[in-house]
Amino acid sequence: MSRWMCEPHVEAFWHAAWPPSRWADELAGQLAGEHSRPYVVAYEGEPLSYLEVYRTPRDVVGRQYDADPYDLGVHLAIGDLAQTGRGLGRAMVRAVAEGLAIADPRCRRVFADPDERHVVARRMFARAGFRSIGIHDLGHKRAELLFLDISA
Predict the structure, then answer these.
(1) Mean pLDDT for the stretch of residues 99-122
(2) The pLDDT of residue 60
(3) Residue-range domains of the chain with CATH
């Protein structure tokens, strides 16, 4: 995780270029808490992405729209720049959203909040079927809020 977060294309938006010990503490804290869950997504047997899944009503994102108690949000980073621009992120977020709908049938929407400057991520979510509800100031960043309706 620490290596991925130090990659310039990730660090520019995550601001989490921490040493492994701090990442170990961060992940342990997430696993012990109730706000978010960290995951590593693999593709063809190799790690592809760091993913966090969280309930939007427990997050600043949930204060930006009429949040349903079961809405979920995702944060993600594809650590290896060579794995970007190939459609893998788009396929991954779509598969993750569909998996979340199966895991929690009460969830109707999955949200993402890429930094407004992160054109690549915004385009990826849009191509995966996410719809925009606009740019919002989240305090720590200005982000485009996007959602995918998975209730159907």
Answers:
(1) 94
(2) 92
(3) 35-149 (3.40.630.30)
